[in-house]
Each structure stands twice: as C-alpha cells, then as structure tokens.
Specification:
This protein is mainly β and 489 residues long. Among the domains are: 105 residues, no CATH class; 54 residues, no CATH class; 54 residues, no CATH class; 62 residues, no CATH class; 55 residues. The protein contains 5 helices and 35 strands. It has a 3-stranded antiparallel sheet, with no helix packed on it. Strands 1-2 form a two-stranded antiparallel sheet. A two-stranded antiparallel ribbon has the order 3-4. A hairpin with a 2-residue loop joins strand 17 and strand 18. The protein is rod-shaped.
C-alpha cells in the first residue's frame, strides 16, 4: 500500500514539476513532422496513435512505459490521460486501476484559430454546416457553393450554379426576374435584359411591353393606330386614329377601315353607311355623320351616325310644313278646306264667317276665328275685336260691328268695325235719340215737324253726292236734290 502511495505522489510531482511536454498543436503533413510516438492526424496536427500498448490510457501502458524507460510517454501522454480522484484518491492513500483510468479529467480543450474539427480532448471546435468541409480546422465550401452571408451556421447556402443572386460567385446578382443556369445569368420566361445590365435584372416584360413586344427593340407599330398594346407577346390595337376603325378584327392589319368619307361614314364598324345625295348636293362625312347641302324646300332632319336618306323632308308638304327642321307641322283643315303649305306656312280656304288669323311657320290650327262671334267680331283678321259690354249688356256682332244695349244715360257713339269700347258716352238723361245724316258736299234741312202720332217729318236738299237717312242711300242726279223723310216714334 505504501509503495502505491509513493508511486502516485511521484507521478503527480512529475506532472506538476517536471513535465516539459509540448501541449500545443503541432502542424504536420506526414508522420515525419511529428515527435516520436506521435503520428500526423487527419486534421493536419500531430496526435498520439490509439495503440494497444504505447500511448493507450490503461494502467498497463503506464507500467510498461515505465519499465521500458519510455518516460516521455509516461509524462507527456499517459499521465495527462490519467486523473487522480482529487481528495478521494489522497484520502484512501491508494492507487488503483479505476483511479488511474479516471485521471483524464486534467485534459484542456484547444480550439485556438479553429472553426471546426477536434479540440484535442475528444470534443469538437464547431460545425461548418451544409455543403461545407473542415480542412485543418478551417471551414471550406464544397465546389460550386459559397458562404455568401458569412454565417457557417447555415453552411455554404449559395449554390453558384442556380442562385440568381449569387450566380458563379457571391458578388454576381442577376437582378429581378432572372435565373442562374450553370453559373450564367439568364431571364425567366417572358422577361428579357434589354439594356444589357444585370444590376436591374431582366427589366422588360416582353409579354406586355409594346416597345419590346416578344423581344428587345420589337416596337409595336400598326397602321392608323393611336394606341398600341402588347398581350402575350403579340401587338394589339388599343385605339384607332380618328376616322379609322379595326373592322376585320385583325391586330396585324391595324385600323384598316376609313370611316369618315362619304362612301364609308360612321362612328364604328357597326354603323358604316354610304352617304346619300337625295334632294341635295355635296355629300360628305362629318365625324361619322352624313352631311349635305339640301335643295330649296328640303331639309335633312334625321342626320345621325348610321343613317343616310339625304334631305328626306319636303318643307312644303302639308304633312311636314315648315321653314326648317325645328318648326315642322302637319297642316289641318279645321273650319276650312284644301290645306296647302306655302313657303313653309300652312294655308287653307276658310268656311264662311271663319278666318285663319295666326298662320305662321310651325302653326296649324285651321280657321280658328269665328268672325261673327261677340268674342271675335270683324270682317278680316286685322279688324277682329272682342265686343265690350262696358256700360251695357248683351254685346253681339252684327255685320262685323259690335252692338250692345246701353245702360240708361249711356250711349255707344263710335260703333264701327274694328273698335269696341262699349257704351262709352254718358249723355243727358232727357235725351231719347238722335241721328246724323249727310253727304260729302253741301246738305241743308229746311223743315222738321211731328204729327199727333209722334211721327217725325223732315225736308231739305243735298247736292252732287249720295245721302243716307238710314234706309237705302239717296243718289244725287246733279246739282241740287231735295229730300223728304219720315221717322216713326
């Protein structure tokens, strides 16, 4: 027991005091670069081989190395691979196989300047992630891959053959709408890089760009087209120039149909007509509507797109009588006969006692005036008046002159055709009646008398003209003529 304790103490002192082992990693390319009893490992550093005798971690190796005089192996390998159970080992004053096997606790990991690989104590210095390798403690990407985000956590995330943002290397970005095919930038279907710059990617959508329709520089130009478009890589008509239309529905022919001529007039393909010259001259097309100069007495009153019947309105027809399209009327024959249209105005022959007093272009109500009515009394339109009942009653029209019964003390002293102011004269209350007679030359009354029955007699002369005493006019036969008259009471 004492021998074991002394052996343990000696070994511990040798580790603490006398061990001059090289603890750092020794770079190597082959075994000749390493110290005796070490070999060049796969990570490019010298390591101890896992042999069954020399360099293993068992107690037999410690004994055999000691017996054989391989003190360097004992101090620099075996002792470092063995741990003493701290307080327990000292307290039990013994050194057994289990204690010596447990001495590995004293190994210190070493990952200095390493990204990956063995830490020297059986642990790892890190992982390089997908598509990566560990070479001499450094992470490296497999061929065709790159760690473009400098993060080994996701490995070499960029595939230089297919990644459009890292095509062939980390610095090459093919831009928007692009692809990377075997490390060469290209464009997605329907797109193109027309400016040759990958910094803006495949900037042209050649399926809908009329300036690059189905290819760079392929500008859509169609005949008589105001606005062109590109759909699916094919040039399309969006709108036509004024006066043209796409009537064959073929985009390739543009707007092939002219629609603003007299022979082809319309606003679209559905209302094209040939302009008629009926009852007119100089047919033309104005913004898709037929126009012409109408002959005298005719008018074009239905001019609109899609119609062509010339000057269809006869302005002197009793069915379309007027001076223009705004005052057309149908001539009626109310209270008359034989209606006609003269210079755009309805005329007709009125029945007896009827007049047409409001004939004008655009009007037709026949012979609307009954000239013997107290409401319209007169022999002609310029003399028709409404008979007034001022200061009287029962106005009537007699021989085109208004008559009425005057109230007591009032008289109608100016009754004549074309005037009506009722009983306008207020006279003497004792006046019964008075009457005026005379011609246009000299007249003279000689005598007036009244008989017992109230009859009035008068005598006198007149000369060279007729004189009317209320019956038939008396005619003069020469110079002087005498007259004798009698009036009943």
């Amino acid at each position: 027991m004492k021998i074991k304790l002394i052996f343990s103490v000696i070994l511990l002192m040798m580790v603490v005091i006398g061990c001059q082992c090289e603890l750092g990693d020794i770079k190597c390319k082959n075994d000749r670069d390493c110290p005796i009893d070490m070999v060049c490992g796969s990570e490019g550093v010298c390591v101890y081989p896992p042999d069954g005798g020399v360099g293993d971690t068992g107690i037999n190796d410690v004994v055999s190395d000691t017996v054989s005089g391989d003190i360097a192996d004992v101090l620099c390998r075996d002792i470092l691979e063995v741990g003493i159970d701290e307080v327990e080992d000292v307290s039990d004053a013994g050194l057994d196989v289990s204690d010596i096997s447990d001495i590995s606790d004293v190994c210190t990991p070493n990952c200095k300047d390493k990204q990956c690989g063995d830490d020297g104590c059986g642990g790892s210095c890190g992982s390089c992630g997908d598509n990566a390798l560990c070479n001499l403690g450094k992470c490296e990407c497999k061929s065709g891959f790159g760690n473009c985000n400098d993060n080994w956590g996701d490995g070499c995330e960029a595939n230089f053959s297919t990644d459009p943002h890292h095509c062939s290397d980390c610095a090459t970005d093919c831009g928007d709408n692009s692809i990377c095919n075997n490390k060469i930038c290209g464009c997605k279907d329907g797109y193109d890089n027309c400016d040759g710059l990958w910094s803006d990617g495949c900037e042209v959508n050649k399926m809908n760009d009329p300036k690059n329709c189905n290819g760079c520089g392929n500008k859509c130009v169609l005949d008589n087209v105001k606005e062109v478009g590109c759909e699916g890589g094919v040039c399309k008509v969006v709108s036509c120039n004024e006066g043209y239309a796409n009537c064959d529905n073929l985009d390739s022919t543009g707007c092939e149909k002219e629609i603003n001529t007299a022979s082809s007039c319309g606003t679209n393909c559905l209302n094209i007509v040939t302009c008629s010259s009926d009852n007119g001259t100089n047919a033309s097309c104005d913004n898709g509507v037929c126009r012409l100069t109408c002959n005298v007495g005719y008018a074009d009153c239905n001019a609109e797109a899609g119609k062509t019947d010339g000057c269809e309105i006869n302005l002197n027809s009793i069915n379309t009588c007027g001076t223009d399209c705004s005052n057309l009327t149908k001539c009626v024959s109310t209270n008359g006969s034989n209606p006609t249209c003269e210079s755009g105005v309805c005329k007709l022959s009125c029945y007896t006692n009827f007049l047409d007093c409001n004939y004008d272009a655009g009007k037709s109500d026949g012979c609307e005036i009954e000239r013997t009515s107290a409401n319209s009394c007169g022999s002609s339109c310029d003399k028709v008046v409404k008979c007034s009942d001022t200061n009287g009653t029962n106005p009537v029209c007699e021989n085109s002159v208004c008559k009425l019964t005057c109230n007591s003390g009032y008289y109608d002293c100016n009754a004549k055709e074309g005037e009506s102011d009722g009983c306008e004269k207020q006279g003497d209350s004792n006046h019964i009646w008075s009457k005026r007679f005379g011609g246009s030359s000299d007249d003279e009354g000689w005598s007036v008398s009244v008989d017992s029955s109230g009859n009035v007699y008068g005598t006198g002369y007149f000369m060279r003209t007729n004189i009317d005493f209320g019956g038939c006019p008396l005619s003069s036969t020469g110079a002087y003529d005498i007259y004798l008259i009698k009036y009943a009471p």
